[in-house]
Amino acid sequence: MKKETKDLNLYYMDNGQAKNDEKTKKQNKRKIAKKREKRIKQNIKNREKNEFDIENETVIEMTNKNKLKKDEEQRKKITKKEKKRMKKIKRIKFILKIFLLLCVITGIIVFAFTSPIFNIKDIKVINNSQITSENIISLSGIKTGENLFKFSSIKAQNGIKENPYIESVKVNRKFPNTIEIDVKERTATYSVDFLGKYAYINNQGYILEISEDSKNMTKILGITTPEDQIAAGNRLNEEDLEKLEDVLKMTAVMTENNLNDKVTSIDIKDKNEYIIYLEEEQKTVHIGDSSNLNNKILYILAILEAEKGKKGDIYVNGDLNNKFQPYFRESVTV
How far apart are CA 40 and CA 147, in angstroms? Predict the structure, then answer.
């Protein structure tokens, strides 16, 4: 009896399980069907959406362009602002750099003007022969012990140039405490009679000094420069400067022919009738103007050799290109 009951229970259990499985299958089928239906509807919607986009492509494209344009404008605005900001930053940095540089320069200047390291200990003068170093230093106004940077080099140069012998000058600072004064001097080459004294002049007609000694320099006679203008530091007038150029030409040719050392004086009163005096040879040379000088000097040398020891005048003041023959006229002693 118990065995039958057990079999009966197993039957009912199996039969119930089968029913449950069938029910589950039906539920799964319904779920699958719903999912398929949902997927179909979604596909239909996607197709409809795609069809709408194709039909409205122009509208979408225009919308995108407007959006891009707005984005671009926005970017430009941002870029402009950024550029302005960057310029402002650069300007500030530049100002800061200038400020720092000025601070550094100011510090260096203050140090240079106050430090005893730059106090002058030595003043040197170079290339001077006519004027003493002491005289040049005195004219410069520079003193030892003062700061290397506190004096004006232009003022010092102008002070030195007050001496007529000084043609040019450079004042150089040699760190840390030395001054070098480099001068170029004028050289006296001729003398001019002046109220019983002699005015020394150089090749440029500058009056360098008034002295009682001629120093055996060639004398220039017959100048037209007024006496009140004959002073150290002045220059001969224009007329005399033009004649001095002719004198320099004659001197150059005579120097080439070893004759210049015998010249005592040159009279320049008449530019068409220059006269050269040779005291040692006891002769006066009438050289005329400054033309054809080489040939004239050769004739003078020949006559000096031929008439050696005789006192008289040599005439080479004619036109040698027009059959003029130079000659010597001996002085008649009474």
Answer: 104
